[in-house]
């Protein structure tokens, strides 16, 4: 369906400053510049796409948590040279119970768990589990899992979200 909407396209590649890179002025110095993606053809599905998690999926299992406004303005050291940076979003502030900034869709994480061919009964380690979407996917796929995160608020969100998966599903 996505390819039908986008039609067939051809990527152009980026050949700017190729002479400078050949002369040693590139990031790593010298060598030939190679662009493996130049001139490939196909529809938009050749790029992996997945819609973001819905608000109901995002807040699943977080019923007892307080709603918080997600920060839409980020400030701090954002540049390599430590200059102050500011990014402003034009969206209004939105309240969520799950305040993790990068929640992945459950369908995507289920797909990735099966793609990696972790066997049923195998253990999946997620050392940066955030709000626990990978752990939820593992529970649905009958894989054992270990989730680690350095933020106690996110660990609590992950625990609640995983516990929201009914045992009858397993």
TrEMBL record:
Any one GO biological process: methylation
Domain DNA methylase N-4/N-6: 87-159
Keyword annotations from UniProtKB, A to Z: Methyltransferase, Transferase
One GO location term (cellular component): cytoplasm
InterPro entries: DNA_methylase_N4/N6, RM_Methyltransferase, SAM-dependent_MTases_sf
Example of a GO MF term: DNA binding
KW Cell inner membrane (keyword) present: no
Residues in the signal sequence: none
Gene3D superfamilies registered for this protein in UniProt: Vaccinia Virus protein VP39
Full protein name: DNA methylase N-4/N-6 domain-containing protein
């Amino acid at each position: 369906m996505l390819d039908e909407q986008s039609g067939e396209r051809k990527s152009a590649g980026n050949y700017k400053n190729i002479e400078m890179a050949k002369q040693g002025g590139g990031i790593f110095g010298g060598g030939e510049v190679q662009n493996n993606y130049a001139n490939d053809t196909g529809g938009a599905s050749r790029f992996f796409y997945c819609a973001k998690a819905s608000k109901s999926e995002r807040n699943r299992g977080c019923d007892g948590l307080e709603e918080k406004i997600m920060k839409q303005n980020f400030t701090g050291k954002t540049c390599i040279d430590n200059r102050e940076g500011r990014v402003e979003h034009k969206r209004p502030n939105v309240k969520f119970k799950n305040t993790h900034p990068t929640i992945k869709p459950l369908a995507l994480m289920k797909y990735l768990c099966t793609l990696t061919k972790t066997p049923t009964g195998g253990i999946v380690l997620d050392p940066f589990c955030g709000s626990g979407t990978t752990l939820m996917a593992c529970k649905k796929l009958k894989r054992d899992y270990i989730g680690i995160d350095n933020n106690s608020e996110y660990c609590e969100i992950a625990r609640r979200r995983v516990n929201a998966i009914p045992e009858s599903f397993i």
